[in-house]
Amino acid sequence: AKAHGRDRSVMFDEEMRAEATRLLDLEADLRRAILNDAFEPHFQPIVRLADGAVVGHEALLRWNHELHGPLPPGEFIGVGEDSGLIEQVDWLMYRRVFDWMSRHGDGYVSINVSPRHFHAETFAERLLRMLDDAGADPRRLRIEITEVALLEDAPRILRMLNVLRNRGVLALLDDFGTGFSALSYLHRFPIQALKIDQSFVAGLGGEMHAESLALVRAILALAGTLGIDAIGEGVETREQRDILRQLGCEFGQGYLYGRPTPERPVGDA
Ligand code: C2E
Ligand code: CA
Ligand code: CA
Ligand code: CA
């Protein structure tokens, strides 16, 4: 039993070392990718559920890795957040997105903003300057933030959101329902829409139907009271779409309408 225990701990050490090496490799890879500007936005449509009309797109980050192809953020965002590299990645990504906006059609484009950005006092100004440099209309941009960001340093975030809103950049609250959902803060911030987290939408019509239905209904009631729009995330089936629509959710996004794709043309672009 003793030998067995020692084997296990040796194995554990080796696994830890392998994992640490893998993460270090990933960090080094990420640094190189930043130098090579190896990131690309993919765009996923956001639709009006009543008729399926495309009202905008969410820009989703992809890393064109030299060996592994386009990597979704789940593969590297942890390392990016821990090392602080995600901010640099995001700025490269935003530049691409604004360039795309300046070349393509109508509808809005939403970008994901890591809570880390709000530590930088000049985030809003920098974003607006980049939009202007790219010749993109700020009124077509929306930023997706999470509840975590709002809880961090309320007065500063409020200032930044107002600076952005004054130029027409609206804020969406991402993954709504998974965070603290401290209702008291919601009405204090200029939030244009809540994105209902896909975990609730996924439950509609499935095993968790009753619970999901109750939660989605509560979120929609809250949004209605505050006069905020709602976007259902991760809509994969017509059943989910129909339920959302019946509950009064006006907008949706998900594989039912389209997967994230590179350089998706918009409208009469
Ligand atoms: P998110 O903001 O909640 O984005 C939605 C995620 O759900 C995306 O994953 C999207 O591809 C996926 N999705 C869309 N429709 C469906 C569906 O019908 N079913 C399912 N199962 N999934 C669907 P993705 O692209 O892998 O992004 C993961 C997360 O990475 C995002 O979650 C967001 O938090 C973060 N992220 C994405 N782009 C950026 C970025 O440019 N900067 C930063 N900082 N984070 C980003
Ligand atoms: Ca998002
Ligand atoms: Ca989300
Ligand atoms: Ca998410």
TrEMBL record:
Residues 23-269 form the EAL domain. It comes from the Bacteria. Keywords: Coiled coil. This is EAL domain-containing protein. The chain holds residues 691 to 959 of 959 of the full protein.
